[in-house]
Amino acid sequence: MTLAEVAKLSEEEARATYERIRWPNGPVCPHCGNADGETITRFQGKAHRAGVYKCNACGEQLTATVGTIMEGSHLPIRLWLMAFARLCSSKKSLSALQLQRQLGIGSYRTAWHMAHRIRWAMKREPLSGLLAGTVEVDEKYVGGRPRPHTGNTRTGRGTKKAPVVALVERQGRVRAFPVKNVTANTLKGLIRDNVDHRSTIMLTISRPTRASAKSSRAGIS
Questions:
Q1: Which of 63-72, 82-91, 208-217 is modeled with the greatest confidence?
Q2: What is the dihedral of CA 86, 87, 88, 90, to 10 degrees?
């Protein structure tokens, strides 16, 4: 969702949206792992907080924020979703001060805390396990634009930019790693560690590496 779409939501709509994202197949108890919708009851009425459920399998109460970076936070879920949308859509770094101003957060410390938690969550692997199916492997060079007066006018594999290799599961997950060089040995190591050996590998690495990488594919598994 975009920032504009999230901004139009009420708090109740934001909570429902987050629950659909967190639980696409219905509520799951973070305490015992119970995913049977018939044994997880949502509390109704004004006497209960919004979004509270009870797992009848273990007897514990739960919400969609339990076990996430939002657990224990008193900030509205709508504000969290807006912060996620803003940080994830920013091409460059976004400071806590900018986040405070753009979202109207009263305290700089609160904005810093939110940004810190979100960045920490983005570093974690959301779905464990090896990539599977058809996995595409590609390279990209990240850094400033070459300038003639610096003497660095090289492009492609001759550039001084930092190489990054991305492994993309079609219609699925993405993993990217900065590497010292894009060689067959480097690619083989990344693929072994992150891709199921039964997967189909699609290499789009530049020509000098493609041949050696393809010829070494038999040694990946």
A1: 63-72
A2: 80
